[in-house]
Amino acid sequence: MKALRLVATRQPLELHDIPVPEIGDGDVLVRVRAAGICHSDVHYRAGASPAHPLPLTLGHEVAGEVEAVGKNVSLVRVGDRVCLHYLLCCGDCYYCSTGNEQFCAQGSMIGHYSNGGYAEYIAVPERNAVILPPEIPFEQGAVMMCSSATSFHALRKARLKAGERVAVFGAGGLGMSAIQLAFAFGALDVYAVDINPAKLALAAQYGATPVNARDGDPVTAIRQHTNGRGVDVALELIGLQQTMQQAVQSLGIMGRAVVAGIADKPLVIDTYRELLGKEAEVIGTNDHLLQELPLLIELVRRGKLKLSQVVARTVPLEASPVNAVLDALEQFGGDVRTVIVP
After folding, report:
1. pTM for this one?
2. Domains, the chain, ordered by start
3. DSSP string across 8-46
């Protein structure tokens, strides 16, 4: 089968011909119909968050059709449409048993520590294959598995309540889902912060108030929009020291800043003015949970979360176009979300 593989860090992905993966008794073989290109893949390619062992097939946003099942598989059948939870875990340890599988000591992640979905086929344990309703296209099912799911988990970590105000720093794939999900959770106002006018225009279509950071300090703009109050929740989805600081500075009294972006520089906080004096919180968010996916999928199925414009374009399973997308993302450019369609 064809697979796009990372052979060495800081090098372009290469298209290889490798064997179709074998499956165990509890596994399923999935024919990949869509694989999202995520900004995390840029970090893996650059070595900022090293992928191993190399060579490795990237891709952790995956949807497709079940091609074959192991003899002990009972929940999915050949032909089922599925999207894949990217965290591989033992299912038995303390963290798995409490629904926090991202901390499983034996855990792994497809496309980061095991072969992912930039390929024609992928094998995963049965528990990782989540049924995808026929109303949801494969392309949307793929991006749900990271960008939407990560935003969903971040908002849950933020303890967002109805009537609160939210700032979303980064109007990319995660940000577009975060905006819509914040409103679904009951947010009164959502402010979308970015420097890309096209992305801000799309955010406005979803009901957000656009804040163009090229036009001035976004923290000042947010305080003007909120009559000096600040926001209750700020999500940082970019991974820059500056935007992490701005997320914290945009908070009002007892506000919560949730950091999801991966940065290579530390977050610097004025502990009294920005944290203690307001009883504000800075919260880290890590991946998402299998238990969250059924509700997320249902929100998409019911049209509460619309992803048709989030999936900006598709590219084939070829090295040149995929590397070009990764190059653009590395410069914080590119479309909202690009999806590989093998």
Report:
1. 0.92
2. 2-137+308-340 (3.90.180.10), 149-284 (3.40.50.720)
3. STTS--EEEE-PPPP--TTEEEEEEEEEEE-HHHHHHHH
